[in-house]
Amino acid sequence: MCQSPMTRTHRGIRPRLLTLVRLLDLIKFFLPILPEVELPDEKISFDERIIFTVGSGIIFLFGQLPLFGLVSGAEYKVVDPFFSVRSIFAMEKASLLELGLLPLITAGFLWQLAAGLKLIKVNFNLRQDRELFQSGQKLTALFLSIVYSAGLIYSGYYDNVIQKYDPLNGDSAPLGTYVLLFLQINAWSFILTLLVDVFDKGYAFGSGILCFLTLQTATTLVRDLVGLEVTPLLNSNRVESYGALINLVRNFSIFNLSQLNSSIVNAFTRLQLPNLNQFYISLLTILAIIGLQNYRIELPIRSTKVRGMNNVYPIRLLYTGALPVLFAYTVIVNFQIFGFFLVTILNKFGIAPVLIDSLLGKFNAEITTNNLVLKSGILYYFSNSTSLLQSLLSPIKTVVYSVSVVLLSVWFANKWSYISGSSPRDISKQFKEQGISITGKRDISITKELSRVIPVAAVSGGFALAVLAVGGEFLGGLGKGISTIIGVSSAFGILEEFMIEYQQTGGNSQFSSAFGGQ
Amino acid sequence: MPLKRPSSSAPGGLRSAVKRKNTSEKKAQSNSSLPLSTRAAGAGGSSSTMMKIFTDEAQGLRVDPLVVLFLAVGFIFSVIILHVFAKITGKFT
User: Fold this and answer.
1) Do A351 and A488 share a domain, yes or no?
2) Is A192 inside a domain boundary?
3) Closest to B39 (Cβ–Cβ): which among A32, A125, A421?
């Protein structure tokens, strides 16, 4: 009987298998040429952090500059297969931000999940492994950006907007312009990676990716509502304002009340430009998230060193923030993009067109919006609906799409609560270091107590946000609701970091003397 | 006051052997398990609500953050200049 524990523990330590080449070691070759932002020598002051945040943010927004080599107004003429997910990843049509933050986010999730689920072997206790790990993410992001942009150019995405090129006229392929487009998109992706690096190394507030997504969401929300520029409608002789509200106001005329109804309906249902429907979905989403943000469980804690020191340790419902939703859509968008590449490439070679149409997916260009809408195939079931009517008319697709988003985010929320460094075990370790214990519990059972609360909070938070996202899509939000979820909850995180920093060191900064009100 | 012992079984014996085995197993497991993320190892990186790609370390070709910002601005300006040149030359041809 006494022998058994001994043998068990011995069996626990397995001999390490010798692997010839680790994935991480392959990255070593690229280390000397990969630029990396150096760490601050001394602590960055509060003012400097504000300047870095605002400066990088403004530079990021300049990425909405149109690509060189395309005709003017290309953003309205591009035939667009990703119209419904653009706003989630800051992908701006026919601009430098064509890929947005998608390569970075995909690379980050790939590596961090692979390490967290122990699919790749990384020893995070070693400094060298951590450095290789972050360089691996950077390399993967650059690689993905090359793959996406090459795929887009090869699939003929830009063909009808390239200057002085008419595919129907029998012109030869504009290779020079292709190369220019490729270089521009990838150079900007590379610069974005470095900008995110500036954020993550502690020069600015929050994480680079989420800060940029927040910024993009905020600016598009305003532009969608009150954007002043007037754009010609496709295949029509009319013009409309970009902003939904401005358009409604402009079309309003006291002498022509019979048109009022149709112009109001148009303001809510137009698909070629932002509509009021999307705006109201965003607004409701903002309110819902502010509400959800307040739900938390407060665990009573006490100090083990000082008698009578009692406090509460809050565990939020949104324990993993908006990351589950971001992850679910990263998966779905990658699925859509690679599906699109596969369909167009197979169509180019003319392999079994009927089979591709019915199995993979068939893209139909809509005349009024220039959106490529899926009509059949597997891809169709993972695409969102353009309006409430569409979601009601295709119930199977709506259900498949919604259930897959919810399942992906719930799965991710559960996993992430264990691998993100705030798992029950990590927190109980922190408690022990700081001499904190949960009131009425022994030190040993803290982990048990926390693991009763944390995964449940994470999963239900992820579920609530996924339902919110899917609900917005069901009503025809076209990604605006989702980008609002990610934007608002990231904004809360960034604000929290900002306030903590302000309370700790902001007292004698220029910022507080300017805005402090004293 | 006399101390009351609630347990009815004798000290040692079968039950405490099982307990000892369980705790030693748990200890071995927690000692042998590696951190699953950079933050768990105490080096920054993604937290539960913040998706970060880079950690608190730098190796390889180090650049100053200001260099990055100027590089970005320079790139933006080069694209703008290309646009302007295209507009000007387009007018004359």
Assistant:
1) yes
2) yes
3) A421
Q: Is residue A144 part of a domain?
A: yes
Residue A333 is predicted with a pLDDT of 95
Q: Is residue B9 part of a domain?
A: no
Nearest to B49 among A13, A197, A323 (CB): A323
Task: List C-alpha distances in Å: A123 to A32, A105, A496.
Answer: 21, 22, 31
Instruction: Supply the pLDDT for residue A140.
Output: 93
Q: Which of B34, B52, B68 sits opposite A123 (nearest CB)?
A: B34
Q: Would residue B7 count as lying in a domain?
A: no
Domain count, chain B: 1
The owner of tokens 């605006």 is: A480
Give A208-236 as a 3 state SS string.
Answer: HHHHHHHHHHHHHHHHHHHCCCEEECCCC
Strand A362-365 and strand A372-376: the pairing is antiparallel
- Whether the predicted interface score ipTM is above 0.90: no
Q: From CA A88, how far away is CA A278, in angstroms rounded?
A: 13
The residue range of the domain holding A145 is 23-204
Among residues 21-80 of chain A, which lie with CB inside 8 Å of chain B? 31-39, 52, 55-56, 59, 62-63, 65-66, 68
B81 touches chain A (CB under 8 A): no
Of A179, A204, A229, the residue at which a domain comes to its end is A204
Provide the residue range defining the domain that includes B23: 14-92
pLDDT 10s digits, B39-59: 888 777 888 888 888 887 777
Q: Is residue B56 part of a domain?
A: yes
Domain termination site, one of A178, A204, A230? A204
A429 and A313 assigned to the same domain: yes
Nearest to A132 by CA among A35, A25, A20, A37: A25
CA distance A426 to A410: 21
Residue B17 has pLDDT above 60, yes or no: yes
Those residues whose C-beta lies under 8 Å from the C-beta of residue A253, and which sit 6 or more positions away, are A259
User: Residue B12 above 70 pLDDT?
Assistant: no
Q: What is the number of structural domains in chain A?
A: 2
* Claim to verify: residue A169 and residue A307 sit in the same structural domain: no
Q: Is residue B2 part of a domain?
A: no
User: What pLDDT, on a 0 to 100 scale, did the predictor assign at position B4?
Assistant: 55
Q: Does residue A447 share a domain with residue A316?
A: yes
Confidence band (pLDDT; 50, 70, 90) for B67? very high
A195 with B34: Cβ contact below 8 A: no
- Inter-chain touch B60–A135, beta carbons under 8 Å: yes
**Shared-domain flag, residues A176 and A280:** no
What is the pLDDT, as a whole number, of residue A18?
45
Tokens of B80: 């703008």
Spans of chain A, pLDDT less than 50: 1-19
More confident residue, B30 or A375: A375
**What's the pLDDT band for B77 if we cut at 50, 70, 90?**
very high
In a domain, A44, yes or no: yes
